Amino acid sequence: MDILHYIGEWITAVFEHWEGYVSGGVIGFSLELWKRFRDWEPSKKVFGALVILGLLFSIFSAWKDERVKYEQEAKKEEPLLIVTVFDMVRGQVIGDPKFHSSMLLRMEIKDSGAPSVAGNWTLVIDAQPQADCERMRIPETLELPRNDNGPPYVFHASEALYEKVETEPIPRGGARRGIIFFHCALSPELLLRASGKLRVQDVNGTWWEGEFIHGSLQEHQPYYPGISH
To answer: Which of helix, strand or coil describes residue 155?
Structure first.
């Protein structure tokens, strides 16, 4: 029976710890020193108390060992998300009474732990952490103007990262790339100079984040494999 097997393992672990405490541990060492320098032989009661004390320490140590093993195994069953922001395209929102600027992030999310979905995307601006930034759905075709009068940036709904990870779990060791688009209640000038964090929750509600730094608008549109499939 499994229970007898586990009881046997527990007794063995307790005995191994007890033997270490009594013979070579603090208890045994202290007792040996006392005998040598004080020329004293412990009575049966003292010896019995030390044996019981060693047993209590041994039971606790055996429990602690199993607790550590359990926590290590549990961590293997938890997601471990890594959020990486490649670059950003920041711009101005026209005609919206609430939102005045936009930020599109090209990014990747990896999972080195248990498979997990990712959602509840949140953009946090360091200079104004209470600023309202709302994730927007990406239309079939999204054009964002450039500030050098060049052709606009063009993105597509198929590139939306939330479509790739919010319902289908990222496998252990897997990665997904895509874009996330926000409208923010900040001036375009302030957002242009802003740095901050992109945060996301896993299936257990744990928050993970990736940092981005301030800078000018990207004047090119590099190719990141996996964003557009």
So the answer is: strand
Q: Hey, how many other C-beta atoms are within 10 angstroms of the C-beta on 92? A: 16
Domains and CATH numbers, the chain: 2-76 (no CATH), 81-212 (2.60.40)
- The SS3 call for residue 180 is strand
Residue 158 — φ and ψ, nearest 5°? -65, -15
Question: Taking the complete model, does pTM exceed 0.70, yes or no?
Answer: no
Q: What is the CB neighbour count within 10 angstroms for residue 107?
A: 23
- Total residues found in the chain within this entry: 229
Q: How many angstroms separate the CA atoms of 46 and 85, rounded?
A: 66
Q: What is the pLDDT of residues 96-144, one digit of tens each?
A: 888 889 999 999 999 999 999 999 999 999 988 888 999 999 999 999 8
Q: Is the dihedral of CA 153, 157, 159, 162 positive or negative?
A: positive
Instruction: Using DSSP, state whether 130 is helix, strand or coil.
Output: coil
81 vs 114: CA distance, rounded Å: 9
- d(CA 119, CA 191) in angstroms, rounded, equals 23
Residue 44 burial by Cβ neighbours in a 10 Å radius (0-12, 13-18, 19+): exposed
SS3 123: strand
